[in-house]
């Protein structure tokens, strides 16, 4: 066989094999159960002349000759005895049950999943609050607050209520077994440990001794879990002294009123100006009359002037000029005044520059707002309220969950913050934009792993906040050293001015 023919035949065999392999997936699949079950043999029914096996012919009767059995009828499975074929009467058309059973036994290939758009990230919803707090100031000469703690759940709850007092103030009366403790620095807090029955309301009260009478005092209050780690709810209130009644002011007499005095001064100036004008006019007339009288006693004998009269040359008078020392002194004085004014203005503008101010007032959206703890501060999208800040001992920060490095003297400061979305749309916010400033201008961002652990594993920055919602949550900052944060900077976006809260 020539080589070319062998090659063509080999190629044809190869192509034929490829076609067979391509056609194999298209063959109908057989169910494993149907392939494994043995097919029962076709049974033939006994004829009338052939007795059933195991029976003897009746005596005196000759058995009929055996006849050749015809072909068996198409079997039809019985509903009561599956797998056993029975004969059917002749002439009856049987439905294709076997074909349908075979088609049903074939496995149906899985269909493709329906085209569904990926779910969009919805706004985060605040978890339902089981304990709510309401604080209201009382109308009294001294600062007093009324606190209502309510359990809205169906089970009793153990809670720890903490009220942070303004710096420099001390409690004079505490109700319901509360006790006063020093929270650190110059702040004092009042703590209650309560067990709230289901659907109950407990009223607490405090009275303070203010150091500066008449100054507004803000005292935020929070209800925590029994261990004091996670806040249920927080509220704040500002006490203001009652305004003193305005004293009755008697009307001043007419000669002591400013409009009357100004009008009298204007009339006096006009009269003085008129008198000066009249005096100068009369003086000019006298000088003219004296000159005419002197001219009449001349060589003409008083007969008047004969025109044209030759012009007599008048003596040129030298114009008086100020002395040189006066001009130089005035110029020096004016120059010194200009230089002094410019220097004073520049010094005043430079002294007004705040070197400790962070670059938030130059943001593109909104205006930077600064306030103390417990006062709601609003920016372009959020309203932030810092209720309290507590820091652990140095060296108790622990190892972060992400395996990062921890400062040797690091400690965690937890701030209880209330966030409210004041816009009509859901708004995202980010952990890296929330900062705690330390002395010297150093700052740290939110510790994401510690914040997630403080919120029971929930990432509060993962989803945007829904419109009009409010959340009270802890934010954790890991700082080094013994210095506590002096300021918190909270903002909703990169280009938002944000708010700054001064820590006591």
Could you explain the architecture of this structure?
- The chain has 504 residues and is an alpha+beta fold.
- Among the domains are: 131-239, Immunoglobulin-like (Sandwich); 369-502, Immunoglobulin-like (Sandwich), CATH 2.60.40.
- The chain is 22% helix and 24% strand.
- The chain is built from 6 helices and 22 strands.
- It has a 5-stranded antiparallel β-sheet, with no helix packed on it.
- The longest helix is centred in the middle third of the chain and has 39 residues, at 258-296.
- The radius of gyration is 54 Å and the shape is extended.
- The chain crosses the membrane at residues 258-279, 324-346.
- Residues 36-92, 105-142, 161-186 are annotated as: Disordered.
- Residues 1-22 form the signal peptide.
- Keywords: Membrane, Signal, Transmembrane, Transmembrane helix.
Number of helices: 6
User: What's the mean pLDDT score?
Assistant: 74
Q: What portion of residues belong to β-strands?
A: 15-25%
Biggest sheet architecture: 5 strands, antiparallel
**SSE order in H/E notation?**
HHEEHEEEEEEEEEEEHHEEEEEEHEEE
Shape, principal axes of CA atoms: extended
Looking at the structure, the CATH topology of one domain is Immunoglobulin-like
Largest beta sheet: strand ordering: 7-8-5-11-12
Uncertain stretches: 30-36, 42-105
Please give the share of residues in helix: 10-25%
User: CATH first level of one domain: which class?
Assistant: Mainly Beta
Gross CATH architecture of one domain: Sandwich
Structural class assignment: alpha+beta
Distance between the termini: 105 Å
Record field, number of beta strands: 22
Protein name: DUF4352 domain-containing protein
Keywords: Membrane, Signal, Transmembrane, Transmembrane helix
